Amino acid sequence: MNQSPSHYDAVIVGARAAGASTAMLLARAGLDVLVVDRSAAGSDTLSSHALMRQAVSQLNRWGIVPALVDAGTPAIRRTVFAYPDHEVSVDIRPEGDAEGLYAPRRTVLDPILVDAARAAGAEVHHDTALTSLVRDDAGRVHGVRLRDAAGSERTVLADIVIGADGLHSKVAREVDAPIVRRGRAANAVVMRYISGCDLADDEYRWINRPTRLGGAIPTNDGVHCLFSSLRPTEFATARHDVESLFWESLEELDPAVADAARGGDPAGPFRTFPGHLGQFRRPVGDGWALVGDAGYFKDPAAAHGISDALRDAELLADAIVDGNLAAYGSTRDRLSAGLFDALESIVDWSWTIDELPERHFHMGKAMSIEHNAVLEHFAARHPRVAAA
Known about the structure:
Elements: E1 7-13, H1 17-28, E2 33-36, H2 53-62, H3 65-70, E3 78-82, E4 87-91, H4 106-120, E5 123-125, E6 128-135, E7 141-148, E8 153-163, H5 170-175, E9 179-182, E10 188-195, E11 203-209, E12 212-218, E13 223-230, H6 232-238, H7 242-253, H8 255-262, E14 265-266, E15 271-273, E16 279-281, E17 284-285, E18 288-290, E19 296-297, H9 305-322, H10 325-347, H11 356-381, H12 383-387
Parallel strand pairs: 1-2, 1-8, 2-5, 3-11, 8-18
Antiparallel strand pairs: 3-4, 6-7, 7-8, 9-16, 10-13, 10-14, 10-15, 11-12, 12-13, 16-19, 17-18
């Protein structure tokens, strides 16, 4: 690791969507920022990929959308909800540089955001792990101890340490950030990337059946992310044979989609997520903050994780620049509550298939309310940028 100044305005642990975005925004505001990530640069991570309107609006405002398009990320022009006896299709309107929505691979999105952070002046190191936090005599977090791939150790001081290191955040554990709200249900997920399958490359397809939720999400290089959500108890009994579980689930969701997938080529291994209850952690404390899944996580059935990460990155960056960290937590919770509740009513499997469209309607309404509230919040915070 290069020798660098021993003090930064902010040190961010985690250089994926949440961490890289926070770094970019803080660096653009003139702060001296260090970002570290234990993973290799450009590495993949488990993701549903789908960006929602609010996320695309932010990326468009940040000037990131052209890079996504140049990387061959297809524009999503409609969302389809498929039920056993009917489908509901929603057209996606263009906005700014965005022709629709996007669902980039994380091997595309994360490096683009890292490049944008570096271009803004942030210092980024991959293959670098947090070993512990540094505290002053009063117990306030004021730095980190790091170890790079060669085993070299370094202590860095900072005005604030930000944990953007995922659901099982080491930063959150180190500061003992309490979980202030927990969901009541969770879904397991089995998924695979398949290329060259005969499926639309310009639509999110969400497929709904009495015992399965799933879908097809087109991403980069002619690849679709095909996935199925199911009860964790069912997943636990079948996880010894993930391949059979994947194909049986896809067949139950939609035989035509399963046939199209079999006609394509595998573009990666089978991947699984055993399920985890949604949760809100207290996101700020004395010298520290949490962003992304480290601070707020909800079931992946909503495919809203990256959108949450980008939203909260900007909320946190604004709060740091304003010197008002308390505003970050209260705004995050206010914007998140409606969609979190609506999603819970779906992932708890308390519905019949005839009731599910109405629950999706309420979830869509909550998503729209959140989208509009986020746009209103950022338009007030960045009026000249929002109007550009």
